[in-house]
Amino acid sequence: MKILVPIKRVVDYNVRVRVKSDGSGVETEGVKMSINPFDEIALEEALRIKEAGKAEEVIVCSIGSKDCQQQLRTGLAMGADRALHVLTDDEVQPLAAARALLKLVEKEDPKIVFLGKQAIDDDCNQTGQMLAALWQRPQATFASKVDLDGEIATVTREVDAGLETLEVDLPAVLTSDLRLNEPRFVKLPDIMKAKRKPLEEIALAELGVDAGPALETTAFEPPPKRAGGRMLESVQELVDELKNKGLL
Amino acid sequence: MTSILIIAQHEDGTLNPATAKTLSGALQVGAEAIDIAVFAEPGSVVAGQAAKLDGVRRVVAVEDAAFKHPTAARLAPEIAALATDYSHVFGPSTTFGKDLMPRAAALLGVNQVSDIQQVIDARTFKRPIYAGNAIVTVRVPDEAIVVATIRSASFAAAPEGGDAAEIDARPAAAEDPGHTRYVRLESGGGDGPDLQTADRVVSGGRALGSAENFQLIYGFAEKMGAAVGASRAAVDAGYVPNELQVGQTGKIIAPELYFAIGISGAIQHLTGIKDAGTIVAINKDAEAPIFEIADYGLVGDLFDVIPELEKLV
Ligand SMILES: Cc1cc2nc3c(=O)[nH]c(=O)nc-3n(C[C@H](O)[C@H](O)[C@H](O)COP(=O)(O)OP(=O)(O)OC[C@H]3O[C@@H](n4cnc5c(N)ncnc54)[C@H](O)[C@@H]3O)c2cc1C
Ligand SMILES: Nc1ncnc2c1ncn2[C@@H]1O[C@H](COP(=O)(O)O)[C@@H](O)[C@H]1O
Question: Which pTM does this prediction carry?
Answer without folding.
Answer: 0.96
